[in-house]
Design brief:
alpha+beta; two-stranded antiparallel sheet; 8 helices; 6 strands
């Protein structure tokens, strides 16, 4: 049978199919991955912001996800499960997982959501609310203070 019969591990409810693997990827790594359709690019969280994935982190996440299938609590017939876990590591299934994950809940994002608040400035030490800062240092060269706070980001 190709339907889950028990639930414990959230991944156990994922089907043995490419769409199931896309859901597994979203469950395991979705908090750190976004796909921006406006840019046609994957974005990864670097601890401060989502930035364009220039090192193919999403593929590493997909490979880790495929390997993790072996550790799932499986409701599937064991031989079918092992065969799927093994085949999920192939180039074709990895590509399908990444492609289908673009539409998983929480993954797609539009460019306007990435910098939704133009008055918030992300720096190495945290986020600066420019409205508050401008009120505090108005007339004291606030541009310099903001530039100093953000100097580490430029390097």
């Amino acid at each position: 049978a190709n339907t889950p019969s028990k639930v414990g591990d959230p991944q156990a409810s994922c089907h043995l199919a490419d769409a199931g693997n896309a859901k597994r990827l979203a469950i395991r790594h979705g908090q750190n991955l976004r796909f921006c359709y406006g840019q046609g690019k994957w974005l990864v969280w670097d601890g401060k912001r989502f930035k364009v994935d220039v090192t193919n982190e999403v593929e590493r996440c997909a490979k880790e996800t495929a390997l993790s299938i072996y550790g799932e609590e499986t409701p599937w017939d064991y031989p079918d499960f092992v065969a799927w876990a093994k085949s999920s590591q192939s180039r074709g299934h990895l590509n399908a997982m990444v492609e289908l994950a673009k539409t998983e809940l929480g993954i797609p994002v539009t460019p306007d959501l990435l910098d939704a608040d133009l008055w918030l400035l992300n720096c190495n030490t945290g986020t600066v609310d420019l409205i508050i800062v401008s009120g505090i240092v108005l007339g004291l060269g606030w541009q310099k203070h903001v530039a100093d706070a953000n100097a580490d980001d430029a390097s």
